[in-house]
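Dear colleagues,

As part of the handover before I leave the project, I'm documenting each prediction I ran so the next person doesn't have to rerun anything. This entry is a single chain, and its sequence is reproduced below.
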Amino acid sequence: MRVISPVIINQFHTKKPQHSVHVVGALIEDLIVKHLSVLAPTDSVRLDQNKLAELFIQMGPKEAENTVCRVMEELALRLSVLDSEHAKGDKNKIAKDARGLIGMAVQIGLTDLATVAGHVEQCFRGNDHVAQQATLSRLFRVADKSLSEVWESQDMTL
């Protein structure tokens, strides 16, 4: 099961069981749910402009731009693979691939993405399924915003 929007129970009453409710990976029985709230997480991302500037100084504008584009394409590809691995339930591959994202993200100044990828790796090495779902969802949100931030900061076009 892939959690798209985490849900929280605001109010419930324990009365005669009428329904079972599936909430964030947990089956809750014997509860009548009165109100559900859909969480709309907002993640901010920071782009390390100094890291990008350093890359451009070391490599020159043309080579640095090529490197940034190549790393962004590889990040997008690996995120897609990670999503497929998640659908298959392959925890070890998810942890390994999340670890691989860290170096690429740091290389082009995506420190928040690197941090979240580290959290995903940690969670998938353990057995906390709720944390795994939450961190993986956060990784995809932060990756989307981070890659957009790089495109916008470089005034690149697809």
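The chain has two domains: 7-38, 49-154. The two ends are 33 Å apart (CA to CA).

All the best with the project,
I.
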